[in-house]
Amino acid sequence: MSEIVDINIQTWIEKLQAVGKNAFALEFLEKELPSYTAIGVKRALSRLTSKGTIISIIKGYYLIIPPQYHSKGILPPYLYVDGLMKYLNRPYYVGLLNAAAFHGAAHQQPQEFFVFTIMPAMRPTSKKGQKINYISISEINPKFLVDIKTEMGYLKVSNPLLTATDLIQFEKKIGGLNRATTILEELSEKISPEQINTEIINHVPVSTWQRLGYIWEKVLEQKTLADDLFQKLAEHQKNLFRIPLKASGTKNKLPTDNRWKIIINTTIETDF
């Protein structure tokens, strides 16, 4: 009997693949195949997992592994994150190094995958040497996102400007300001002054804008972007206070940039 269950579930999975599906939820399977016992389903899924046909990403949610990915035993995150977050009923976007890569500004393939979502916090997942870091924030504004087409559908990714601010705000997660600035060198080419509008000015912390403005002006020589940002901050009555360039560094008896009120407590060294 177990062999019959296995064959039928495998056939059901193959039919999902045939219509472009690369994942399924356990409750969906149970609804579709109501004649099978919970034990029968569990055994069949365990056997298919052992064969490398499927893999459980989180409890109750399985990826279907096509032949071209059997050697890795898992799909690339960009092919399944959208479906996973829909299953969890969570807004999200792909950010930081991965978003920069989608915008053509990655010097090397990121080793981790960064997904922003709302509270409550999600633990990182690590499967087959593949790690997804979930970063919890208070809100996600879809106006700052773009849909990137993949072979399995679409993926929500932060637009170039939000990616730039996230790289500065969350620089510790990617290896520091040096790496963030290296990526900003190319990413800034995708940003126009028109993108610096009221909504995103109010969405991003002022301290992040100060650091980004300073880096644009003093390190990357992006004077047009820096000038426009400074003007927009003034128009929106955003007060600039003395803050260190490196958030975790010292700020005593060090020079301060008069325009951006940045305490210069580190020297930025990039790869370009």
Automatic annotation (TrEMBL):
<dbReference type="Pfam" id="PF09407">
    <property type="entry name" value="AbiEi_1"/>
</dbReference>
<protein>
    <recommendedName>
        <fullName>AbiEi antitoxin C-terminal domain-containing protein</fullName>
    </recommendedName>
</protein>
<feature type="domain" description="AbiEi antitoxin C-terminal">
    <location>
        <begin position="80"/>
        <end position="217"/>
    </location>
</feature>
<dbReference type="InterPro" id="IPR018547">
    <property type="entry name" value="AbiEi_C"/>
</dbReference>
